[in-house]
Amino acid sequence: MSIIFAILLFSLLIFVHELGHFLAAKASGVQVNEFALFMGPAIFKKKVGDTLYSIRCIPIGGYCAMEGEDTDTDNPRSFIKAAWWKRLIILVAGSFMNFVIGVMIMVICYLPVQQIVAPVIDSFESFSTVDEAGGLQVGDRILEIDGEPVYMQSDFSLILSLNPGDVHDLVVERQGQKVTLDDFRMEKHTVTDKDGNETQLYGMNFAVHSPSFGEKLQYGWYQSLDAVRIVRLSLQMIFSGQASVSDVTGPVGIVDQMSDMAAQSATWVDALLNMLYFGGFIAINLAVMNMLPIPALDGGRVVALLLTTGFEKITKKKINPKFEAYLHGAGMVLLLVLMAVIMFKDIFTIFKG
Prior knowledge:
Elements: H1 2-27, E1 32-48, E2 51-66, H2 84-110, E3 116-124, E4 141-145, E5 148-149, H3 153-162, E6 167-174, E7 177-185, E8 189-192, E9 198-201, E10 204-209, H4 213-240, H5 251-264, H6 268-289, H7 298-315, H8 321-352
Antiparallel strand pairs: 1-2, 3-10, 4-5, 4-6, 6-7, 8-9
Helix pairs in contact: 1-2, 1-5, 2-4, 2-6, 2-7, 4-6, 5-6, 5-8
């Protein structure tokens, strides 16, 4: 069931993405030749006006085919003839829709939550040293660590793990005032529990409370911002050499992770919420990744649009859209090769495990 859920989820996210392009194109007066749900041969087709609506047999993705999207044409309602700002809106609309549905899913996941751990210090353990003179105090709300905003308590460990050292820059809210603690020593201590397990702890306990409806909405939004940050941090780690492409997971690996998550859930409700959360994270991930300035992605098309528009405004000369189509075509080939490599890596990892 988790595999079916994952396939339907991916299809929904791609459909919503293409729906964003479709709605923006229609609102901008651009002719849409076909709007398809799924891929492959059509099992249902109906033409309404200039647009062919179809449902296809392979339950993956979909597409929105606009007139003059990659080639020049004399059709005044083609994509290439639309004002540059209309084309910009159409290109961005897909990722915008993915982000919106991602936020909605995150909010849905938080609605059943009965208790939330806030990034507010409730007490200290006897072994803690972070509450010494000039340090942290009970009631402090942690706002930033090393320049990264802290939205939720879970951000605390995430951000500290990015810097393996013991010295960090903190910003806290204390009695309504912002207090900066530069080069603050966050010392861990080894604690042994009753079962003999050793854990490294700072000795801080965070406040737990029952959230209001408004706070649930707020935490759903915070979780969405965290998803954006994780994408950014992941890209930074890849470009800095801290991580490699082998650490990247594709659809096969994601489906496998969702299956494991569902299997480890206590109840079917927990399994559904966990998979929904994963889906929300993927939706926001797709929204951000698709806006990267890479040929074939919407972000690459946006950059190309801005550059060609600026060039044409300055030189009064029009660039042949075929050149941009060739560039995006080459980018698509490279992306497909990368996706294939990641897919085989995920399959090998699953069978090896």
